[in-house]
Design brief:
This protein has about 425 residues and is α/β, with parallel strands linked by helices. It has 14 helices and 16 strands.
Length: about 425
């Protein structure tokens, strides 16, 4: 690593640490004022944001990036408006910082409670999605943290412009600009320095592909809240409403292919397969979705005149496609479905379609994923849809946060003691 990169990252870290103290004491009014200012400027500069983003998109296309990557990188008017709405939604949320849980009087006379506090300085390492710059900064801002953002080189122009808008919003509310900093170098050694800066950064949140997560797991010294794969399943139970199953499973796969909450594997109970698979797979093939199927599914579909089916291989059950490809397996019962999810799932999001409450309850209790759904599209596993305003990521971990990570996931608790002159005897 060059000494200049190391010095730059150390300087960013020091300034973030100083700013974090100011953010920890910032009032809710200040934080909300900054967020509203950012939302206003995002809307005002929507055309400029798209123009700058197009530079990143054209560069990525020139570098041969695949369509799913380009989709994640591209900022549309809808994307930009969703960012602004997310900022406003975060403003509407209660500020968790400084809240003390119910004080309880102890036998000694002291009163004991817990106060919610910021984590401090958060480092976010992400690829391709420039909207993360706004979403992550906004959540860190509202939760009283300072944040260092290191986006991918492919989105450097978009991220730089968005960072300027954020810093303008901070300044408008009398908050330090250093509370949100974007690493402007595309040198990958900056990441190596960032993930070892334990003296300045309290937690790293990586948002990217397997190679990024694997590198960070091997090299990071700063604790992480990480999101690995999004291998999401939907199980259509024998007692499912067929029309509902078709509607929900179509949406779960085809509403958008690139997000991590898109369904990658469809599991169908053998007792309902003949009723649901032909209708559903006709929709998939009409939309250009490649179907990778097991033997039972192939038998059902070929009996209904389907062609161009691909035999599913072992690796298909373990793959997050992020593309118009779907694995389908016909299973005997809910136990086989849950066993499949346990073996191949990534503990992200899994859903059951059923009108049988007992089956739904079993699925909710036994499927060990961050989000478990009944009769709903996996595409709902999202901070905005969950009313969190946005999300800093979706954690597959069980500690410290799980599922879409919103405001509470960016805080910690400390014990507070209220005394009246008590002494320990």
């Amino acid at each position: 690593m060059s000494s200049s990169i190391q010095e730059m990252m150390q300087d960013i870290g020091m300034r973030a640490r100083v700013a974090s103290r100011a953010m920890a004491r910032a009032s809710s009014e200040q934080k909300n004022q900054a967020l509203l200012h950012i939302a206003k400027v995002v809307r005002q500069q929507a055309t400029e944001i798209q123009k700058i983003n197009q530079v990143d998109v054209e560069r990525a296309k020139g570098n041969g990036q695949d369509p799913a990557f380009i989709d994640r990188l591209t900022m549309t008017p809808k994307t930009i408006e969703t960012m602004a709405l997310g900022l406003e939604q975060i403003v509407s949320l209660d500020d968790p910082i400084g809240k003390i849980s119910a004080l309880q009087k102890q036998a000694s006379g002291i009163e004991l409670g817990q106060m919610r506090v910021p984590l401090g300085v958060i480092g976010i390492i992400y690829e391709s999605r420039p909207n993360v710059t706004i979403d992550a900064a906004a959540l860190c801002l509202k939760s009283g943290n300072a944040v260092i953002l290191r986006g991918g080189s492919e989105a450097i122009d978009s991220n730089t412009l968005l960072a300027q808008i954020i810093q303008e919003g901070l300044a408008s509310a009398g908050l330090p600009k250093d509370a949100v900093q974007v690493v402007t170098t595309t040198d990958r050694s900056a990441v190596g320095e960032m993930i070892t800066m334990t003296q300045y950064i309290d937690v790293i949140v990586p948002r990217g592909g397997k190679s990024l997560i694997a590198r960070l797991m091997a090299e990071a010294r700063v604790p992480m809240i990480k999101h690995l794969d999004g291998i999401c399943h939907t199980y259509i139970d024998a007692d499912a409403d067929v029309a509902m199953a078709v509607k929900v499973c179509d949406n779960a796969k085809t509403q958008r292919y690139a997000p991590c909450n898109a369904m990658e594997t469809l599991l169908v109970n053998q007792d309902i397969a003949q009723k649901v698979l032909p209708t559903l797979c006709k929709i998939y093939q009409a939309k250009g979705v490649e179907l990778r199927v097991d033997g039972l599914t192939r038998k059902t579909l070929e009996a209904n005149g389907f062609q161009n089916l691909v035999d599913a291989k072992e690796e298909d059950w373990q793959t997050e496609y992020l593309a118009p490809i779907l694995s389908i397996k016909t299973v005997a019962n809910i136990d086989e479905a849950m066993n499949h999810i346990e073996q191949y799932g990534s503990k992200h999001t899994d859903a059951i379609i059923t009108n049988n409450k007992a089956q739904a309850d079993r699925f909710l209790r036994e499927v060990d994923s961050a989000s478990v759904m009944v009769n709903a599209s996996t595409r709902f596993a999202d901070g905005f849809e969950y009313g969190l305003g946005a999300e800093i990521g979706i954690s597959n971990d069980k500690l410290h946060a799980r599922g879409p990570v919103g405001l509470d996931g960016l805080t910690s608790l400390k014990y507070v003691v209220m005394g009246h002159g008590e002494i320990r005897t």
